[in-house]
Amino acid sequence: MIAVFDIQEELKALPASPGVYIMRDENEHIIYVGKAVNLKNRVRQYFQESANHSPKTVNMVRRIRSFNYIVTSSELEALILECNMIKENRPKYNILLKDDKAYPYIKMTLDEDFPRLIKTRRRDRDGARYFGPYASGTAVAEVLALALSIWPLRRCRKHISKSAANADRPCLYHQMGLCRAPCAGLITAEEYGAAAAEALAFVGGKRDRVLRDLKEKMAVASETLEYEKAAERRDQIAAIQALTEGQSVTRGGDDADVLALARAGDEALVEVFFIRAGKMTGDDHFILTGVSGMPRGEALGGFITQFYSGTPYIPKEILTECEVADKAVVADWLSGLRGHKVTITSPKRGDKLKLVETAGRNALITLERRGEDMLRERRRTTGAVAEIMAALGLPAEAGERIEAYDISNTAGYESVASMVVFEGGRPARSEYRKFRIKTVVGADDYASMEEVITRRLARYVRELGEVGSGRFSKLPGVVFMDGGKGQVSAAERAMEAVGVSLPVCGMVKDDSHSTRGVIYNGAEIALPRSSEGFKLLTRIQDEVHRFAVEYHRKLRAAAQVRSVLDGISGVGPKRRLALMKKFGSIEAIRAADESALADTPGMNAASARAVYEFFRK
User: Fold this and answer.
1) Tell me, which fold does domain 256-371 have in CATH?
2) Residue 167 pLDDT > 80, yes or no?
């Protein structure tokens, strides 16, 4: 017998220690993760009737059925654990950073004899120098293009050593004037190293020094009557000055991020200015959800912990529009990640205050500009879900996760099923699943649907007792079938057999194969065709059908390739795959000559001859 979780008894057992607490709903799903200096005092506050909770917190507390906690040795350790758990579980009632961006960097490969400047979105511990992050790929491309036009470093990935730097012929980059061809020995390692050092200083923000050096070289070239070289230096100086003039300049040469927040309802927009080497390299904005009724400092603190846990670069200073909650603990955590001291400052005067105020104005402008778009998006997602649930007579919460299913086959051949998921009215593509029908012979869509729903729910039941979350550990609030009463009945039989009960609806089409309405409890319900709910229903039906047909075509194409190429001696699975990857179709393979076939990775002259002759028998 499973023990009932007694919240009041468990509250009495809470320790007066720092730690992290985890709130769970009736399905054991994590709905909130929080940290506390004193677990006993913090967790008990949620269940006190006299507490002045926000409407959002009141709604969360109603859904709590159990909780557990992890004691930590310090508040800093609790912050780190909380951050990791929020990132992994994305609980419904936590502040969540919606934007998950991998920012671009410029990388100098110092571990090579002839270093390269390249763009990357990863920052590894490989001895290279990294510069950034930049706010956009465009900003990186602009800086890289200018640097490589002034210092034509190599762009190829060849391994070139100093001892064998004259082994190759110059490539097209050299002919275009974009590389000094160290591979062919046309530039010495010392000359190349000097050019790489100048490029490194330029990308690293030391542009005043680079400009000074270039002006000195221009003057020397002019005095020695090397007018062509002097003109080249003049053009380089003009290009750097043009790029630098377009950037805001701040006092000092340190790196900093400037944060300001604007909000509306349960969402907030955080504007970030990126200051690198004292110059503004760009800006970006991010959307937070779950901020209703929350102090600004707490919302900014939530953004900082989520944003900087996901970016490989942390600046020396973070400037914020207001004091951040738990500032000292957050600063210690950031310092640990950076490896050097990080300060969080809310400036009250001077240039830094002006920066924060400018970021704040930008946040408001961007939020206002996005306001209509956000409202329109809510209408077509969560608003549309609410319309559908109201038409079905189901609570709005049932539509938070919708699963839809479809069957696809050709006369019973290669029967497959698709499962698509919509969360909050949006496709959750990482949750999509594919099924190959295993037990049904022939084109029996009802039996196939019953098999798929049985397998899906049986996996859910098995995963309930497992540690961690499996691929099928979440249950939907409502299930949609692409079809009518037959498919609905098949799903209901499967649920009854497994012992899981969920609302099941059928999505029916008209004579022109367009969405007509939805069947629920044996009756067809028509939504107004102009309503957002009807449009969402159409999108769900089209998406589940597309996903099933796409999977079926892929299997059918693979089977076709196997059936045609299987009979060729010396052509196994790897060579078949290589041929299809290179030529794209059987027709293209049939038309290819022997040399083109032999040029395919993994093929040799004998296997190419076998393929060529096979199609000409």
Assistant:
1) Nucleotidyltransferase; domain 5 (3.30.420)
2) no
Please compute the mean of the pLDDT values over residues 374-389 and round it to a whole number. 86
Distance from C-alpha of 404 to C-alpha of 506, rounded to nearest angstrom: 9
Mean pLDDT score, 2-15? 81
Tell me the CA distances in angstroms from 6 to 16, 17, 64, 148, one per residue in order: 19, 21, 11, 67
Looking at residue 95, its pLDDT comes to 86
Contacts of 76 (CB under 8 A, 6+ apart): 329, 332, 333, 336
> How far apart, in Å, do the first and last CA atoms of the chain sit?
72
Which residue bears the tokens 């006299």?
A: 50
Q: Which two tokens stand for residue 125?
A: 């511990």
**C-alpha–C-alpha distance, residues 313 and 11, integer Å:** 40
Q: Which residues, 6+ apart, have CB-to-CB distance to 150 below 8 Å? A: 198, 199, 202, 236, 239, 240
Q: How far apart are CA 604 and CA 480, in angstroms?
A: 51
CATH number for region 566-614: 1.10.150.20
Report CA 276 to chain centroid distance, whole Å.
25
pTM score of the predicted model: 0.54
* Most confidently predicted of 84-88, 174-178, 260-264, 341-345: 341-345
Annotation: CATH topology of 7-94: GIY-YIG endonuclease (3.40.1440)
Averaged pLDDT, 599-607: 88
Q: Is 433 helix (H, G, I), strand (E, B) or coil?
A: strand
DSSP E strand stretches across 313-431: 317-320, 343-345, 401-410, 413-423, 426-427
Give the Cβ contact number of residue 598 at 10 Å: 17
pLDDT band at 454 (very low <50, low <70, confident <90, very high): very high
User: Which residue did the predictor score with more confidence, 552 or 12?
Assistant: 12
* 3-class SS letters over 567-579: CCCCCCHHHHHHH
Q: What is the mean pLDDT of the chain?
A: 83
* Torsional class of 468: left (φ above 0), alpha (ψ -120 to 50), beta (otherwise): left
Alpha-helix residue ranges (DSSP H) falling in 47-115: 55-63, 75-89
